[in-house]
Fold:
Amino acid sequence: MYRSLDPDKIVSTLDVLHERINERFPGSGLSAVCAEVVSMARHTSRRILKVSQPIWSLRIALLALLAAVVGLVGLGILEASSLKTSDELTETMQGVDAGVNLLIVLGGAAFFLASLETRIKRDRALRALHELRSIIHVVDMHQLTKDPSMIGHIRTRSSPDRPLTPFQLIRYLDYCSELLSLTAKCAALYAQKLSDPVVIETVGSIELLTSDLSNKIWQKITIVEGLAGDQTSLAAMSHES
Structure:
């Protein structure tokens, strides 16, 4: 029960996060991005179900090819057991040569079909993972201008608008970090259902990306907390004096 990720739990957690962001920063770009991630998470649940199901048309075609290969081998054995003269042997050897070539072609087709299902599922998963990676960079764009070192500094004409208080800035950055982590969990669902090494490696790179971005965000949060503490200390000292 607690040994695998539950897509429904991820979606419900994202729903709550979206409500929290919208209540704290109504109409903000981050709220819109979170709503998009919620939609992608719901879509991920359906995609995971589809990707994990077998492609029966390919499997039936593969079984038909294998049956044809077995039938050809059996036919060759029967022909060889009924040989009587050298002329028949010559004709049969020619037939065996043609049969071997046909077996090679059918074997190649069987191998192609056997790997085709894996490649189709991999392609579907990689397209979905590319979408998740893209939204991760969008989330990162929303926190880039939230520079704590500019708190209390004089703005220039081209400076980005920073109307947030230190507390609001901490909450905003914290929401970005949570959103990154939950998006990575959506990606991890594919690695959970597919044992394809390419998919697992791609999921690992996405998790590493979100981890690196979250670390940078928490460095900003630490700086804001330090600046807020310094300002509180200065205010207390000026009040005492």
Summary: Residues 7-147+162-235 form one domain.
